[in-house]
# Entry
Amino acid sequence: MKKIKTTRPFRSRIFIVLTILVASYSAAENVETALGSPDAPVTIIEYGSLTCGYCIKFHKEVMPLIKSRHIDSGHVRFIFRGFPTSKPSPF
# Structure
């Protein structure tokens, strides 16, 4: 049985391609949106998806209450960080 010898240049090319893909994806997804004062004593960080039904429901029903009661008063800073899901929501 003949053994196939792998070469290092092939491995390094694959590593470089994978590194570029991961860096590109990470850079595209690391966008965050913030509401409220950066000096607020409390910071809420939400990891959510624009295709998640529960996230959409939260932003339609709960977020207006948090914004009017806590963010607008300067007590809370709210940060949204995108965490995409694979399928669109039925909502």
Summary: Residues 28 and 82 are 10 Å apart (CA to CA). The domain at 31-91 is CATH 3.40.30.10 (Glutaredoxin).
